[in-house]
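SAMPLE LOG
Freezer: B-3
Tube label: C17
Construct: single chain, 400 aa
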Amino acid sequence: MRRWGTLAALATATALLASCRLIPSGDAPRPAGPGEAPGTGVTSAAFAGVRHGPSVGALGLAAENAGTALASFLDTCPALLSREDKSGLTYPEDWRPACDAAETWPYDRAQAFFLQFFETARVGTGEAFATGYFEPEIRGSRTRRPGYDVPVYRTPPELGRFWPDEVPESERTGRAPLGRLDAEGKYTLYYERAEIEDGALANRGLELAWAADPVEFFFLQIQGSGLLRLPDGSLMRIGYDAQNGREYVGIGRVMRERGLLGEGPGKYPGSMQGIMRYIRENPEEGRELMRLNKSWIFFRELTTDGPLGSLGVPVRRESSVAVDPAFVPYGAPVWLDVDRNVADGLWIAQDTGGAIRGANRFDTFWGNGEDAREIAGGMSARGSALVLLPKGTVARLNRE
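STRUCTURE (predicted):
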């Protein structure tokens, strides 16, 4: 499951609306995160500094938490053994002993697994900031029918990466910007949210499904994946496929700047629920507010038993966490101890997001359902974090 900077750096919903895990990090702006002050040039964990933390045995790891973490760790082992670690902390072969053992390790002895194969590491200061995301469920239909008028689009074939003519060949490094080619074959920006809502993609057969509520669908786009409850009661899971390349604007931040969030008369709670209430109670202003976010997400249908994270494996409730892979290796266990006790415990790094940037910045996944919406919608927690690395890693890093 991928998110946009979906659902981050202000408290509660402002943070939530900045961190959504469903957009590839390369398509999003890169704000500095906790542990990475603007202009410091700290670009990976190897430069942030890594030192030993307490022993794994001192963490007080609960049996059930360890069991679910072991299952998620095993899911991620293929990536650990094959991908370059952008954090600079590990090599693929460092993980092989743990991954080989995980294949047959009994879940009821998972605590012993983490104790045997891992040591804790504190990256930078270890001061953590955690938000939450979830898999929303909204009403939808595979076909357009009365009450279902909001198109859920698949990726248009013309959306791609192209270099503008004005960018010299010598400066064409990295990835070309997202956009489309006009009738003359020249690069142009892709349609923004307002243009798409006004019909720029209508009548082209791109509709994957139809949603019933434009506000609920807006927030599903921020999350980047979700469930459509169809008229017959069945569920259709949709997941992020592409993004239009236009600017993401966190509407929670805008509302806070306008004095709409907070405490007192006329203000709304700084949570996802509070933001949705404002939009519903002020439909014209709410529509204009949502259109400030020019980003649009295109979807595909998923047949998996959970939304997919950035590694292409399903993310799991209270087990999967989104990280900045420049500071935490994908697949690494992460220990959180924060001021929202519900988020304390062991998580596995399986996802990322546009605003999940910097050392010790995390986005915890809470599954689906009303309780997941409630927890994720109000999750804004600070505390400390430890990354669990294969034994011997920290000493090697400090020798190099």
